[in-house]
């Protein structure tokens, strides 16, 4: 399952956001640093309006959406890479996630203490990014101390890895996130990914604002957006307080509340969709009499790979994939009608599964 870590300085709204994400009160929220002592974990369904449409057409009882695991990690402080605050324990937790949501405080409130004594989102971002980079740098230097000896002997793999480690040392010294595609070729990227560095993970900056700035943003969020655009990251405006209130409402009440705020979708839904976009993920669907089930695959995945997400036997014994595009299924109303119109087709092992494809796999065991 996809794992996303929520990080940030103390008192920026991380745990409040986590509570809203999971619609549960299992993450403490208090006005003092380090109120989150152990990383809280919650599994959140990925919003997909298509599933309810398909449920009605297929007349089935169950919907099984795809999901993301969110990890709420304790607030980092300056010096965390050297053990300050709660230190390396939480840096380790960040290494285990696929993407990072960095919550950035973009609101003024004299009643909520800021760990640095003032609100400055760019300073906050730099503190987090620098600490992650410093921790990665220590890891890279330690690894290079071992691998350089093998590289001197002429070992081909060691020479490649040593070269990658040297490049990473220079990049990490700049104290910011790294886009591997900008600096490394395909072989080097494969090596860099094995190091499980935090500074190469995709990042979304969740600009936490008051309800009054949720629609248009403010001077703080403009700074964050400008920073993110320079560093291949995404920004989502979110009011953790509003999201927590929305989590307490029913579906219809929540929609009315959003309409009153002049917003079409919740910040949480937009954030989850941003994670999918940032990680370049796609959803295919299996739908029948029993259930409608969404499955996650990386963009570019071929039919056998997609089959393997359901079960390894499907991939091993793959024969053909019966494909019906979502739009065609909705337009025609049933598999039978789609087959009569010729919009359902059989595809082989080289077919690249598209987002929204309804798929039935043929396989032999």
Characteristics:
43% helix, 365 residues, three-stranded mixed sheet, six-stranded mixed sheet, 12 strands, alpha/beta
Number of helices: 15
> How are helices and strands ordered from N to C?
EHEHEEHEHHHHEHEHHHEEHHEHHEE
Strand order of the largest sheet: 2-4-1-5-6-7
Average pLDDT metric:
85
Distance between the termini: 26 Å
Strand content: 15-25%
How does this structure look, described?
With 365 residues, the chain is α/β, with parallel strands linked by helices. It is built from 15 helices and twelve strands. The strands form three sheets. The chain has a six-stranded mixed β-sheet with strand order 2-4-1-5-6-7, with helices on both faces. Strands 3-9-8 form a three-stranded mixed β-sheet, sandwiched between helices. A three-stranded antiparallel β-sheet has the order 11-10-12. The chain is flat. Mean pLDDT is 85; it is low at 24-37.
């Amino acid at each position: 399952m996809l794992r996303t870590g929520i990080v940030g300085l103390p008192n920026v709204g991380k745990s409040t956001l986590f509570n809203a994400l999971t619609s549960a009160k299992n993450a403490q929220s208090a006005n003092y640093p380090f109120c989150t002592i152990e990383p809280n974990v919650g599994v959140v369904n990925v919003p997909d309006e298509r599933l309810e449409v398909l449920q009605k057409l297929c007349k089935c009882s169950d919907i099984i959406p795809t999901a993301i695991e969110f990890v709420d990690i304790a607030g980092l402080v300056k010096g965390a890479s050297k053990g300050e605050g709660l230190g390396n324990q939480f840096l380790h937790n960040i290494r285990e996630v696929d993407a990072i949501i960095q919550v950035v405080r973009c609101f003024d409130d004299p009643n909520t203490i800021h760990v640095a004594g003032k609100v400055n989102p760019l300073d906050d971002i730099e503190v987090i990014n620098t600490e992650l980079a410093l921790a990665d740098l220590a890891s890279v230097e330690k690894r290079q101390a071992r691998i350089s000896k093998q590289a001197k002997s002429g070992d081909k793999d060691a020479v490649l890895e040593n070269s990658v480690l040297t490049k990473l040392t220079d990049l990490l010294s700049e104290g910011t996130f790294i886009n591997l595609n900008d600096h490394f070729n395909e072989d080097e990227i494969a090596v860099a990914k094995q190091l499980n560095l935090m500074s190469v993970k995709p990042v979304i900056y969740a600009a936490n604002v008051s309800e009054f700035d949720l629609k248009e943003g403010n001077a703080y969020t403009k700074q964050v957006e400008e920073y993110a655009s320079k560093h291949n990251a995404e920004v989502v405006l979110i009011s953790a307080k509003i999201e927590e209130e929305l989590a307490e409402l029913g579906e219809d009440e929540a929609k009315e509340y959003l309409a009153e705020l002049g917003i079409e979708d919740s910040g949480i839904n937009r954030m989850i969709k941003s994670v999918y976009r940032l990680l370049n993920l796609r959803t295919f669907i299996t739908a029948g009499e029993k259930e409608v089930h969404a499955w996650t695959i990386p963009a570019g995945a071929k039919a056998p790979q997609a089959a393997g997400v359901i079960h390894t036997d499907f991939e091993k014994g793959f024969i053909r994939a019966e494909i019906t595009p979502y739009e065609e299924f909705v337009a025609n109303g049933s598999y039978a009608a789609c087959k009569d119109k010729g919009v359902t087709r059989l595809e082989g092992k080289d077919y690249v599964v598209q987002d929204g494809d309804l798929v039935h796999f043929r396989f032999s065991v």
